User: What shape does this take?
Amino acid sequence: MKIGILGGGQLGRMLALAAYPLGMRVRVFDPAADACAGQVTEHVCAPFGDEAALRRFAAGLDVVTFEWENVPEEAARLLAAELPVRPSPAALAAAQDRLAEKNLFRSAGIETARFLPVDSLGDLESAVPAIGVPAVLKSRRGGYDGKGQYVVRSVADIEAAWAAVGGACIVESFVEFERELSIVAARGLGGETRFYPLVENRHRDGILRLTLAPAPGLTPELQAAGESIAQRVMETLEYTGVIAIELFQCGDKLLANELATRVHNSGHWTLDGAATSQFENHMRAVAGLPLGDASACRPTAMVNLIGAVPATAKVLSVEGAHLHLYGKEPRPGRKLGHVNVTAADEGQLQRRLKAVLQLLEEAS
Assistant: This one.
């Protein structure tokens, strides 16, 4: 089977690497000549709007998937006229627009922060008093890793917020959460599902820095709540593939924050800490194969390498450290790789994690 991937970044790279042991071949489509997935698989380099290039890309493929939710919906729909696209273009579109995303959660009976659409400064001036402060103004499209957002702490911030973000937006109430969690799940062609354990995510400057898997103190009740949210979203979208939902924990309640219709950074720990990685399960799902066990094998921490990479030998000298580099040129704020730290128990994990974090501090 030959699978096409729209997008050739690190997620496409790891999907390709997961496909090869299953006997699959992979081709990626990405406008960037230096797309890092191109180092490990066939790469068609052209703009997403190039219909002729998309058709050349599709030739000989059995199915197409995507690694990035900002792939133009039009490209996915053009390909869907010729061969299966999984997840569907409709699922892709749902994750591209924060208003559509929030409405999807609402239609599935999933609780979120209060929100209102805003399309002008006047809309924002009306919405902020209705939502209350603090509030968060977010662009509806294109924002990721904290981009396209502005915290409105008082009505005096409204004009600055609009100047900074502007355009088609939503404004949300600010959630006083205990911690940020996420759930990664997979759904096969026949509706078979697998759920990874909820994980705790820690961000800085809007970028995920650390994931702890499973989430410390995870209870069966909280896991069941996360699985219910993921199940409802996947059923609503008639989904095929891996999906991730970012959540706020408020006491014993979970609020849905954002949706990723793809493999996700908070699921990278599964490469070394789960029975089947999120990447393998995604490729299994889109190929129509049975899904693999999604249970955690051991306590694991995932540390993103942002902007700089410690010396390989130093990382590998830490017992239980597994280094995953993406083949990307360093620059400030860029995700260059990650380290998965595994251990037999929480105490050992914290000691090993501390050693890796110290190496990151020295390299930055």
The first strand starts at residue 2 and ends at 6. The longest helix spans residues 220-237.
